[in-house]
Fold:
Amino acid sequence: MGVKEIVERMEREATAERGRIVREAKENANKKLAEARKELELQKKRFIEAEEKRGVEEKERIIRAARLNARKLRWKVEEEMIGKALEGATKRIKDVKREGFNGKSYSTILSGLIKDAALSILAGGRAGGELAVMLSEEDAAASFVKPDMLKKIADEINQDKGVKVRLSLSGERIRSAGGVIVRGKEGNIEVNNTFEQRMARFFTSLREEVLKTLFMK
Structure:
């Protein structure tokens, strides 16, 4: 084989090798390009999903915040309205003392509170004895409760329950808008029937009634 043939053969082989390299490079480039496009689409999809998720989370956060604010506002309004209702009830006590309530004088109302307290003490196992009735300074000065009233209440209880109970006015005064505290002579048991304490005891049911009246129309 002469030099010319060798050169020509080398050129042919070089051309073939170059073609192979070019083909492989193109195939590899196309493969890489396809992978890059696939990765780009995947990244794009992930980005969209993340943005949608963030959008949903942000929307839910806004809704949760709005609901919380609405609850807080409702609680605030409820408490304000209940406070006003209870404040109005407390102020009404002065009218009750002057005018009575449902046809009953304030003295009659106090008589019922005293009897109720005395019966509660007896229900606790006390067999009778001396019970002291404590009033506010205002109610004591106005003589809403007199000794003959206490004797009448004691007589009713003694007759109904078969016990010996005596009721007397205590010189001790209580801080209250109205009502009474009845205490055993030994001071070891008492029933608080002041208006404030009675409202506190029935606050839950009173609250439900107020809310029903104010918000469930």
About this structure: The mean pLDDT is 79.
